[in-house]
Amino acid sequence: MVDSGSGAEGIVIEQDTLRLLVGMHRIVRHLGRTSASSTLHPTQFIALLLIADEQPIRIGTIANRVPCSQPTATTTVAALEAAGLARRQADVLDGRATAVVLTPRGDAVVEAAGKHAVDDLTQLLDRLSEDDRALVLSAGAVLARMADEL
Fold it and tell me: Which helix (H) or strand (E) holds 88?
């Protein structure tokens, strides 16, 4: 937990934190409404991207990284399988376990959604000054590290 200070300083930090949270949420929702991800539930889309990055990946790892419960991860993977985007296979490290990988169709959806999201985000970034754009892009590396530690 971050110490937000006391008094006026603590209030400013809380307001800045809330403004960051709301801004990120609005941008992510905007990108979700305009991209190929809109055909999938947000949890399914996050899981699909996670599978693409880490395949083969176990369902328990998906649950931990999304984050969601194990039953939700199982249901999510089943929906991705039903849509032809992912499939289960024997885990190469432990034949008793299963892992999830993308199908060629899943690969295509991830690629198209990624391109579309990058294009949409680039349009938003192009509205910023050069300095603000550089600041936002450099914050991306920090946010990615934060997300990896969840």
Answer: strand 86-90
